[in-house]
Write a structure and sequence with these properties.
The protein is an alpha/beta fold. It has a single domain, classed as Glycosidases (TIM Barrel). 38% of the residues lie in helices and 13% in strands. The protein is built from 15 helices and 16 strands. Strands 5-4-3-2-1-14-13-7 form an eight-stranded parallel β-sheet. The protein has a four-stranded mixed β-sheet with strand order 6-8-10-9, with helices on one face. Helix 13 packs parallel to helix 14. Bound molecules: 6-O-phosphono-beta-D-glucopyranose. 6-O-phosphono-beta-D-glucopyranose binds next to loops.
C-alpha cells in the first residue's frame, strides 16, 4: 500500500552523501602513503588510474565547504589503511593521521557528522604480498588498524562502518579490483569463503573493540543489499530467489547480527566442499559481537529464477548483475524495471521492500550508506543539468518516507556520491556526484568544482527535512 499520511523524517536524520578514499582522494603515493591493491591493479582499458581521482586530498576544505553549503548533516567517507599504515601493520604514517584528523575537524566545524568506513576495497599492497585476507593473521592486522583509528579519531567520530560491501568482495572481487587467489589454489570457492570468514571474524572483533574503547560510539556493517525477487510465482523460482537472497544478502547480516552462518549458505558451501575452517574461539567471537545499526548500500533489486543445472548461466560481471550458479539460481532481467545508461536496473519501490525486509529480519536502525545513479554528465556553460539524477534520488527518498511510515527505523541517507569520483571499474565517465569535478578520463583539466542541478535540489530537500522533493 502507498501511504498517504506520511510520517515525517525523524529529527536528526542524517542527510548527507558518501565517498571512498581510493576513489576520491588521489595523492595515491603522497605524504608517506603506501600503495593499496587498487594502486597496483590493472586498470580496465579506457579508464584512468587512481593517482589523482577528484584530488579530494588537496581540495578537502573546499569540498567540505560545498557539502556544508548543501546543508549536509553527515559525510560518509573511508580511511585508507595504507595511508595510516603504509606497510599495513607496524609503522604509522603521521601525515596520514594528520590528514584524516583535519578532515574530521573540517566536518565538525560545519556540524557535519563524520561517518567513517574503516575498509573500502583498498587492502594495503604490502598485506596482499603476505597473503591478504587468505592469511589468518589478517584478523589481527585489521584489529591493529581498527585500534589506531579508535585511538586517534574516536574522540570525534561517533559512527563507524566496518567493511564496505564485504558481499561484493566475495562475489565480484575482480570487478572491484580486489581478488587475491594464492598460487596453487585448487578450490577457489573454498578459498574465497575462507577469506570471507576471516573478514567476518575481523569485523566481529572490531565491533567488540569499538564498544570497549568507545562506549559512546556506534558501529555497524555496510553490505550491498538488493532484495531478490522470484522471476515468477513458480515454487521453484521462489526457492531460487531464497537461495540467492541467502548467498548475496543474509549470509553477511545473519553473521553480523546473530553471529551464525545462514543455514542455506552453509548447506550450499557444504555441497561445494567450500565450508570455511573455524579457528579456536571464532564461534564465540562471532556470537559476542553486536552491531548498533545496519549500514547498507542499495542500488537496485535483483531477480532470480530456477536453474536446472542444464544450460550455462550468464557470468556475474559486477555489483548489480546476477549471474547464476548451476542448480542454485539463475539471474533474470526484470522486465518491469528501467535501466541506467550503464545497465543497472532502477527500482525505488524495491528500495522500500528492501528496507522493510531488513528491518523485519534484524530490528536494528538502518543507515543508507550508498544509493545513486551513474551517468554521463555534461558541463555546458558552467552548468550541469542532471534531471535524471534528481528523479532517481527523489523517487528513492520518497520510498524511505514510505518505509518510515511502515514503521522502519531509519537513521539517514547518504547517497553515492558527494562529489564525482572514479567508478570501481568504469572510470571517471560514470559520474555519481552532486558536485561536478572538471576532469576527463585522462585529461586532468582544471579539477574545478561545479554545483550540479542536483546539488541545488538536494540542498532544498535537506532544508525542508525531506518535505519538498519537487524540482
Ligand atoms: C558500490 C561501491 O559498489 O557501488 C562503490 O561501494 C562504487 O565503491 C559504487 O563506486 C558504484 O559502483 P560503480 O561500479 O559504478 O563505481
Amino acid at each position: 500500500m502507498l501511504h498517504k499520511n506520511l510520517k515525517p523524517f525523524p529529527n536528526g536524520f542524517f542527510w548527507g552523501a558518501s565517498t571512498s578514499a581510493y576513489q576520491v582522494e588521489g595523492a595515491s603515493l603522497e605524504d608517506g602513503k603506501g600503495p593499496s591493491c587498487q594502486d597496483v591493479k590493472m586498470v580496465p582499458e579506457g579508464t584512468s588510474d587512481l593517482t589523482v581521482c577528484a584530488d579530494h586530498y588537496h581540495h578537502y576544505q573546499e569540498d567540505i565547504a560545498l557539502m556544508a553549503e548543501m546543508g549536509f548533516h553527515s559525510y560518509r567517507f573511508s580511511i585508507s589503511w595504507s595511508r595510516i599504515l603504509p606497510e599495513g601493520t607496524g609503522r604509522i604514517n603521521p601525515q596520514g593521521i594528520e590528514f584524516y584528523s583535519n578532515l574530521i575537524d573540517e566536518c565538525r566545524k560545519y556540524g557535519i557528522e563524520p561517518i567513517v568506513t574503516m575498509f573500502h576495497f583498498d587492502m594495503p599492497a604490502a598485506l596482499d604480498e603476505r597473503g591478504s585476507w587468505s592469511n589468518r593473521e589478517s584478523v589481527e592486522w585489521f584489529l591493529e588498524f581498527a585500534r589506531i583509528l579508535f585511538e586517534n579519531f574516536g574522540d570525534r567520530v561517533k559512527y563507524w562502518l566496518t567493511i564496505n560491501e564485504q558481499n561484493m568482495l566475495t562475489l565480484v572481487g575482480p570487478a572491484i579490483g580486489s581478488l587475491f587467489i594464492p598460487e596453487g589454489c585448487t578450490n577457489q570457492m573454498k578459498e574465497i569463503y575462507q577469506q570471507n570468514h576471516h573478514q567476518l571474524v575481523a569485523q566481529a572483533k572490531a565491533m567488540e573493540l569499538c564498544h570497549k574503547m568507545l562506549p559512546e560510539a556506534k558501529i555497524g556493517p555496510a553490505p550491498n543489499i538488493s532484495l531478490v525477487y522470484a522471476a515468477t510465482c513458480k515454487p521453484e523460482d521462489v526457492l531460487a530467489a531464497q537461495n540467492f537472497n541467502a548467498i548475496r544478502n543474509w549470509l553477511y547480516l545473519d553473521m553480523a547480527v546473530y553471529g551464525v552462518y545462514n543455514h542455506l549458505v552453509w548447506s550450499y558451501l557444504e555441497a561445494h566442499d567450500a565450508c570455511p575452517v573455524f579457528s579456536e574461539g571464532d564461534e564465540d567471537v562471532l556470537k559476542n559481537a553486536h552491531p548498533d545499526f545496519i549500514g547498507f548500500n542499495y542500488y537496485s533489486t535483483a531477480t532470480a529464477e530456477a536453474d536446472n543445472g542444464g544450460e550455462e548461466t550468464e557470468t556475474t560481471v559486477d555489483q548489480q548483475s546476477a549471474g547464476g550458479e548451476a542448480g542454485v539460481y539463475k539471474g533474470y532481467h526484470n522486465p518491469n524495471l528501467m535501466k541506467t545508461e550503464f545497465g543497472w536496473e532502477i527500482d525505488p519501490i524495491g528500495f522500500r521492500a528492501t528496507m522493510r525486509e531488513l528491518y523485519s529480519r534484524y530490528r536494528l536502525p538502518l543507515l543508507v550508506t550508498e544509493n545513486g545513479l551513474g551517468a554521463y554528465d555534461k558541463l555546458e556553460d558552467g552548468k550541469i543539468h542532471d534531471p535524471y539524477r534528481i528523479q532517481y534520488l527523489r523517487e528513492h527518498i520518497a520510498q524511505i518516507q514510505q518505509a518510515i511510515t511502515d514503521g522502519v527505523d531509519m537513521l539517514g541517507y547518504n547517497p553515492w556520491s558527494a562529489i564525482d569520483l572514479i567508478s570501481t571499474h568504469e572510470g571517471m565517465k560514470k559520474r555519481y556526484g552532486l558536485i561536478y569535478v572538471d576532469r576527463d578520463e585522462f585529461d586532468l583539466k582544471t579539477l574545478k568544482r561545479y554545483r550540479k542541478d542536483s546539488f541545488y535540489w538536494y540542498k532544498k530537500v535537506i532544508a525542508t527535512n525531506g518535505e519538498d522533493l519537487a524540482d
